[in-house]
Amino acid sequence: MEPTNRPNRPNTLLLVALTAFGPISTDLYLPSLPDMTRVFATDVSMVQLTLSAFIAGFAVAQLIVGPLSDRFGRRPVLLAGVTFYLASSLFCLFAGSIGWLIAGRFLQALGGCAGPVLGRAIVRDVYPRDEAARVLSTMASIMALAPAMAPFLGGALHVTFGWRASFVLFVLFGGVLLTLGWRSLEETNRHPDRRALHPLLMLENYGTLLADRKFVGYTLTLSLAFAWMFSFISGSSFVLIDTLGVKPQHFGFCFIVVVLGYMSGSFAAARLTRRLGIERMIRFGVWLGVSAGIVLAGLAWTGIATVAAVVGPVAVMFFAAGLALPNSTAAALAPHPSLAGSASALLGFIQMAAGALAGWLVGWLHDGTTIPMASVIAIMAVGALLAHRLLITRLAS
Hints:
The protein is mostly helical. The protein has a single domain, classed as Growth Hormone, Chain: A (Up-down Bundle). The protein is built from 17 helices and no strands. It is globular.
């Protein structure tokens, strides 16, 4: 049942900035990854762990951040998380080895995850289901501007100042968000649950969510869609720069084509969901993702290794994810208003765990060709389609 006494609606740009913690923290330093193998005298899989460790930290911390916000409110937990992100970014900035950088990235994620978890929970606090889907789609389309520009900026910073320059910007980003959150964000959790942090209740709440077949179906659908995106994010710099010869300062041009695909899909979802319905948008998104994934893998396995053969199909897949992700998120969170924080946390954990696994697979299988990345992306797309068909479509029929 939808609550009727909803709190005031926060500024959409602030919500966008909160949900941008993940993309900003991964995309900005992508052009530096190939060179970091030489700076730290290590291999691709170890450098790629700076991405996977961040995503793993994002996944684990969400299981605690969500219940914390159900107990103490969204605002104090968010401010504490952003403060921890800022301090951890400073730690990464001065890391002297790849091991310390990996550890710092994990710590950075523990604080940064408060942004998207609480951003989603705040949307669920203040908007009904269908409007929440529209707002999440609008947020996603605006948010895509940041990761679209991040590789351009990251490439220029890397060429001019080296890899540490990106981490200076992480520190500044955390400082700005801490200031904005402190000054403008109101508390939206009007009914804190004093028992939310009780271990047995936490297990009971997560058990309730996992017993809901629709929640699991929508969550797996969006998680595997995110995984096909993160497969490209984690492997793109190695494939495009090392394998296909794109210069670091030009990497952003390839990346922006892909991100514009996601932005276009999110914009289309914001415009069309009310008219066509959430289910139809999700279904079209996953089918389109599978089709483009098969094309991508087919080109790679037949030896067609060009920038266009990678960027073209992936841009279509990002468009498909823009249709499926926000709608699946809204559909997963809608039935559980009293567990908005916990539901957002569990959803985020599964989403990030899928992304971390996909990213690790891309790094582990990397062989200097386009085949491993393309294959992992296609597999994740097929998984998203199966999750939706088996757990949502079949349930409705």
